[in-house]
Write a structure and sequence with these properties.
By secondary structure, this protein is of the alpha/beta class. It folds into 2 domains: 164 residues, Bordetella uptake gene, domain 1 (D-Maltodextrin-Binding Protein, domain 2, 3-Layer(aba) Sandwich), CATH 3.40.190.150; 116 residues, Periplasmic binding protein-like II (D-Maltodextrin-Binding Protein, domain 2), CATH 3.40.190. 46% of the residues lie in helices and 18% in strands. The chain contains 12 helices and 11 strands. The protein has a 6-stranded mixed beta sheet with strand order 2-1-3-10-4-11, sandwiched between helices. The protein has a 5-stranded mixed beta sheet with strand order 7-6-8-5-9. Helix 2 links the parallel strand 1 and strand 2. Helix 6 crosses helix 12. It is globular.
């Protein structure tokens, strides 16, 4: 009798879960952006949120929860109910870099169920025009004649531009001096003024200054040339084979979210990310659309944890 009751209860719970997934979403979805409004992560999330609202006929409410390099918002989602109504637009910084820069209150693999990648935002390497280099090879050659003398600016310690530069220096076997700033704008200001000769930043930060000639772009850091700067080579093709740094964003749910809900979200998000109008909107921000299966996204997270843990350790980078 007890066995029959247990089976009945189990079947009932399974049926309830399937029914809930079939009716999903039945109320607004909270889409947490763990960074301030106006940044690339936020812009991409808002573009997707508008389209998911129309697709599901339920509001996707953007909830900016900045702080501690993305850790606050990311943790909030890790501790939310796994019902598909609280999702995070996660980034490489909080998921695969943060764990090596200090203690984080979540595990990127254990505490989340990946849904899909959404975008990649490669950085660009640029120099002040006064620096006598016109290519990656020129910069590497100059740095080798002046080890530890050339300064480069980034938006801060442990930022993706900082990690881009650390990987660049490691692969080129050169030594440069990191000048961290409290954000991208002051780093760009000093680079434009010539107070620091080299800079690494997301493409949108430097794009207008490269186009105007106030900065000299040398290369982009993705594996493909950027539609925003098609004349610039990649670092990979400009002299450092195998180099890639393409900071990514993606949608994740709390661990334990049903496979049916994950599949539904993945299908709709991928459909949206493949649309030409979304590609055009992303391109205007210097961002490239990306999409994946949940399994591919999980594999990327695991691979990046291995890759960047090593880079951070070798470069001796400590979180602030």
């Amino acid at each position: 009798m007890l066995l029959r009751i247990s089976c009945f209860v189990a079947c009932g719970l399974a049926l309830a879960a399937v029914t809930a997934a079939a009716q999903y979403p039945a109320k607004p979805v909270r889409f947490v952006v763990p960074y301030p409004a106006g940044g690339v992560n936020d812009i991409v999330a808002r573009i997707l949120g508008q389209r998911m609202t129309a697709a599901f006929n339920q509001p996707w409410v953007i909830d900016n929860r900045p702080g501690r390099g993305g850790n606050i918002g990311t943790e909030a989602v890790a501790k939310s109910p796994p019902d598909g109504y609280t999702l995070v637009h996660g980034g490489m910084g909080s998921l695969t870099l943060g764990p090596f820069l200090g203690k984080v209150p979540y595990d990127a693999v254990r505490d989340f169920t990946p849904i899909t990648l959404t975008a990649r935002a490669p950085n660009v390497l640029a120099v002040h025009p006064s620096l006598p280099v016109k290519s990656v090879k020129d910069l590497v050659a100059l740095a080798r004649t002046r080890p530890g003398e050339l300064n480069y600016a980034t938006s801060g310690v442990g930022s993706t531009p900082h990690l881009t530069a650390a990987l660049f220096a490691s692969m080129a076997n050169i030594r440069m001096v990191h000048i961290p700033y409290k954000g991208g704008p002051p780093a760009t200001t000093d680079l434009l003024a010539g107070q620091v000769p080299i800079g690494f930043a997301p493409i949108p930060s430097f794009l207008p200054h490269i186009m105007s000639g106030k900065l000299r772009g040398l290369a982009v850091t993705g594996l493909q040339r950027s539609p925003s700067l098609p004349s610039l080579p990649t670092v990979n093709e400009a002299g450092l084979p195998g180099f890639e740094m393409s900071p990514w964003f993606g949608v994740l749910a709390p661990a334990g979210t049903s496979a049916e809900i994950i599949a539904r979200l993945n299908g709709e998000l991928v459909r949206i990310l493949r649309s030409p109008d979304v590609a055009a909107q992303f391109s205007a921000q210097g961002v490239e659309p990306a999409y994946s299966t949940p399994e591919e996204f999980l594999a990327l997270i695991k691979a990046d944890l291995g890759k960047w843990g090593k880079v951070i350790a070798e470069a001796g980078i400590k979180g602030e």
